[in-house]
Design a protein that fits this description.
Blueprint (H helix, E strand, L loop, with lengths): L5 E2 L4 E4 L3 E4 L2 E4 L9 E4 L2 H14 L19 H30 L4 H16 L3 H14 L4 H8 L4 H8 L6 H18 L1
Antiparallel strand pairs: 1-2, 2-5, 3-4
Helix pairs in contact: 2-3, 5-6
Amino acid sequence: MTVGDVDLDAKRVWVRQPVVEVEGRLVRNPTPKGGRSRAVAVGPQLAELLQEHLLRKGTSAADESLLTSPRGNGFRWNNYLARTLRPAICATATRWAVGERKRLLAMGLSRPNATAQALASAEKLKRLTPHHLRHTAAGLLWAAGASDIEVQLILGHADLETSKRLYAHLLEGSGESAAARVEQLREARHAG
């Protein structure tokens, strides 16, 4: 992404020409996945962080890379993943396992079983990828009451069926939730 891909007034970041690493070189793809540009909605916290980032960069040309390495070179995903993100995920999973072990002990599990379960869960967490965060985002959006169309637009899918097909497992139980909301509306009308 380039500096020009950021539209803070509209609270969007455009994905127009992603950069990929090919044989050690950064190459700009002419079109993103799916063959069309798409906008990613930016919440208030991310908008603020992007604003600060752009201010630190100073006056940048619209075609300058939005994210760069500490040396100012092109951002290489594999380096970032290996040097920054993966160690942060592993450290977080380890800290989480300590709390999980305490929770399991409080539930009455033996010390060896609680330790084994917590460590096994932590190992699963260590395999977390950024793409898993899309699943989390979709689930949280639906749980917060976002419509299917809103989720589709935020995730950038070309059609609604793609979102439903990929994330249908996250909607299990939503029928009961919707029915409960309808019942609440009915009761509110009769009371008022």
